Amino acid sequence: MSLRTADYDFHLPDELIARYPAPKRDDSRMLVVRRATDEILHASFRDLPQFLSADDLTVLNNARVIPARVFSDDGRIELLVLDPRPDGHWQCMVKPGRKMREGRTITVGGCIGEVLSITSDGTRIIHFPIQPDLEKVGQLPLPPYFERAAEPSDNERYQTVYATESGAVAAPTAGLHFTPEMLARLPHCFVTLQVGAGTFRGVHNDDLSGHIMHSEKYWLTPETAVRVNTAKSIFAVGTTTVRVLESCVREGQVQAGEGETQIFLHPPYQFQIVDKLLTNFHLPRSTLLMLVSAFASRELILEAYARAIEARYRFYSYGDCMLLV
Questions:
Q1: What is the mean pLDDT of residues 87-109?
Q2: Which residue(s) pair with 280 in the sheet?
Q3: Could you tell me which CATH number the domain at 69-137 has?
Q4: Phi and psi at residue 215, in whole multiples of 5°?
Q5: Can you tell me the distance from the alpha carbon of 113 to that of 175, in angstroms, rounded to the nearest whole number?
Q6: In terms of Cα–Cα distance, which of 274, 211, 285 is closest to 240?
Q7: Residues 6+ apart with CB under 8 A from 219
Q8: Regarding predicted confidence, which is higher, 209 or 289?
Q9: Distance separating alpha carbons of residues 232 and 17, to the nearest angstrom
């Protein structure tokens, strides 16, 4: 067990970053890690049911990515809309920040907004009395490591087939591999975590204990709570699903509700709800890599990553996946 950030680092060749999805959702490769025996196997995502049992309840995050990347009408300012509130107060990341001080105005889609305040993390609260229509003026906010703008095909492929709850600015990417046919084969239910831009933020402190986790909104319905609490085994699809389930634990069971979570799962955390996990391959020094290292062990996860790199797996949001059983 290590709390040193440097111990969660690895080198990834640039050509292994998947900047486009596989031709079909379920074409992905799947690295299988058996935690009890440290066995590492190569498989395909289509093999997933072979590694699950009849007792497993699959839990997925049904968040839907909004077209949150917006440019001012003059093209000089870029906004990443983190929280477009119904009252017209939008919380945004802005570039360049020097042009968006308090009192400055911006025009988006013909609508004029004013910077009301700058928060402690540098985001702006911008008030639009008449709100721009994000569906008309916005683009999908692809991860920065794609190094490209969104294309028409991303409108479908950067959403899960079961995405229904709009509000995320990043996709719950472990779910991108699922087809309707695969989902129909598995007993399942949903939670919602509106994935924020902080999911891509690395840990810059030398020690994990000094890292302040970003906050994300979540919902867990009473129906899902009943199903999770009565299931014999929980198979979580994605780290975002894990964060909801483990945030809602009270005396060994999940409680329905909604709120915001800043839970930071890292070694030596002991998971209370999740028994199996499907996840993509994550960035070095990221909180997501630390979460997965708590679910297995840092040494086993880094060995699995080394095997994946050696076998030329595709990494990150549009990449291949890893199953931890």
A1: 94
A2: 321
A3: 2.40.10.240
A4: -105, 140
A5: 35
A6: 274
A7: 165, 191, 192, 257, 258
A8: 289
A9: 36
Closest CA to 7 of 200, 295, 207: 207
Structure tokens at 254: 């999940």
Q: How many helices (H) does the chain have, and how many strands (E)? A: 7, 19
- Cβ pair 302, 38 in contact under 8 A: no
- Indicate the pairing of strand 78-84 with strand 89-95: antiparallel
CB 67 within 8 A of CB 89: no
Tokens found for residue 24: 């079909």
In tens, the pLDDT along 248-262 reads 999 999 999 999 999
Contact 92, 79 (CB under 8 A): yes
3-state SS class at 73: coil
CATH topology of domain 5-65+143-324: QueA-like (3.40.1780)
Dig out the tokens for 159 from the structure: 């959403």
Q: What is the per-residue DSSP string for 127-150?
A: E-SS---HHHH-B----GGG-S--
Global confidence as pTM: 0.93
pLDDT confidence of residue 125: 97
What letter represents residue 293's amino acid? S
Domain boundaries along the sequence of the chain: 5-65+143-324, 69-137
CA atoms within 13 A on the CB side of 277: 28
Residue in the structure block whose two tokens are 């709009």: 166
Contact (Cβ atoms closer than 8 angstroms) between residue 301 and residue 2: no
